[in-house]
Amino acid sequence: MTLGWHAPPLYELTLHSPSWHVVEHILFLRIRAYFSGGRSFYPGLAARIGRKWAVIPYLLLADVQNTVLSAFLTFSDRVVYPTYNLVPQFPGMNSLSDQHAAGAIMWVPGSIVYLIPAGVSLRCDFFLRGAPVGTSSGLSVRA
Predict the structure, then answer these.
(1) How does pLDDT run across 95-110, given as a tens digit for each residue?
(2) Radius of gyration over alpha carbons of the chain, in Å?
(3) Is the terminal CB of the chain with fewer CB neighbours within 10 Å at N or C?
(4) Hey, which bits of 56-130 come out as E strands?
């Protein structure tokens, strides 16, 4: 979803159309609410490994898409969205340096938003409950 809306034609559409901008944000919020509710896109996976464990792959995959988009914006040698060439910039910045800064901001705090909950889920669900090796925690380790 995020990658689609950041494709230049759709992104430019949302910049120039308040209605499409609202649609974009409604879709982001609906996906976020669905994701936050612990629902799984693959119910069989949640049943096999436990609902809390099922969220970890989704958080990691969300971080991968965030990383790909952020790296693209950060390391691009051209301005991806033409509209940003037409708006005022901060002193000492041009459109490309602004895009690089935005990519870096998306990358670091954006990854934290996914990786900390994944780590907390892993720690709380497995390590803190003291599951013995090879039990129903979903992981098995050979000694």
Answers:
(1) 999 999 999 999 998 8
(2) 19
(3) C
(4) none
